[in-house]
Amino acid sequence: MNNAGLTSPSIWSRGMVAVIAAQFLSAFGDNALLFVTLAVLKAQFYPDWSQPVLQMVFVGAYILFAPFVGQIADSFSKGRVMMFANSLKLLGAASICLGVNPFIGYTLVGVGAAAYSPAKYGILGELTSGDKLVKANGLMESSTIAAILLGSVMGGILADLNLLLALGLCALVYAAAVVANLFIPKLDAARPGQSWRFGPMTRSFFCASRTLWRSDETRFSLMGTSLFWGAGVTLRFLLVLWVPQALGITDNATPTYLNAMVAIGIVVGAGAAAKLVTLDKVARCMPAGVLIGVAVAIFAVQQALLPAYGLLILIGVLGGFFVVPLNALLQERGKHTVGAGNAIAVQNLGENTAMLVMLGLYSLAVKAGAPVVGIGVGFGVLFALSIGGLWLWRRKQ
User: The CATH number of 3-189+201-396 is which of 2.40.50.140, 1.10.3210.10, 1.20.1640.10, 1.20.1250.20?
Assistant: First the structure.
């Protein structure tokens, strides 16, 4: 089959719609399951510092399988890889539902997510091209964030009602994602015939890593997205402890509502980036990255719900505007050098290493008894300084 015949100039082609639908369902399940599993930990009296550890085992799967998932995405039809990955997520959710240790079940979901990510982003460059790739990324991010919005809220609400029902519905959503994957056109493998021996696979991955990290443009993208997603996942767990301490609210739903505000903002920011930023003007997104850190520091000292909602929406808008152009830049440059699947796998390694480090530091701070407000302010300031430093380095380049 010739992929050229399936590549469409429209971002609303049948294949693209199927990818977006599958991504929405898969991301919905991921976010609902996270908050339901956090409620399981609370119900089973796990300590507060174990909450970020749950995400760390998920992230660890990304890091462990990073040398292999890019080659898997490029060696098979990406739609079928996405279907297999969602099946693993389904198995992980079902195992938690059946009483398996939540850390084990969530690790299995992480393995599925690790395999899914290079395929879901890599397929965009096979279904569309050029500056429409930025728009396709905006659509993908908007779909993802809409799923975060709805999945997080539904996970929190259902966890307050009935944990077993909530877990069962998460498994059903993953099953629907598997079905949606069947409607993605079966594209040719991007790079078939690669060696499946452990040594050559790891060498190939680290060769791709060196290629991307040595290029000024792709190194800039990798550093920016790694900092962003490391900060984003830490903010999510910060909210879980911030809500009862700053607002005196102890339910499972309120932190999900606040996460939803970030999701709403990211949808808006991603749409703005698709209209205002092109691949040759990616640096336009950098001021938004600095302002994210400033807004997080201001948010941490709030003691009322209404200003917290407003600031989290603003953080989301800035985040969407910041990360979408960087993703598109990496996919476009990576497709022509190491393959889109390998490029996303390298990106995942960077992003998830950043997540692991930031979550580890956050967990240690919580275990040491540091006040959540102080953690939030320090976190925001450090993020703003990091992005500001990256921006200055880019300008010097």
Answer: 1.20.1250.20
Of the chain, the end-to-end C-alpha distance in Å amounts to 42
Return the residue matching tokens 């990106």: 347
Report long-range pairs for 46-49 (Cβ below 8 Å, ≥24 apart): 48/241, 48/366, 49/363, 49/364, 49/366, 49/367
- pLDDT tens per residue, range 141-197: 778 878 887 898 899 899 888 999 999 999 999 999 999 988 887 776 666 666 677
Listed by start position, the domains of the chain span: 3-189+201-396
Those residues whose C-beta lies under 8 Å from the C-beta of residue 101, and which sit 6 or more positions away, are: none
The rounded distance, in Å, linking the Cα atoms of 305 and 59 is: 30
Per-residue exposure over 301-321, b if at least 16 CB sit within 10 Å of its own CB, e if not = ebeeeeebbebbbbbbbbbbb
pTM of the full structure: 0.73
CA angle 368, 371, 375 (to 5 degrees): 90
Q: In whole angstroms, what is the distance from residue 187 CA to residue 3 CA? A: 6
Residues 95-124 have pLDDT tens digits of 999 989 999 999 999 999 988 877 887 787
Q: How far apart are CA 385 and CA 397, in angstroms?
A: 18
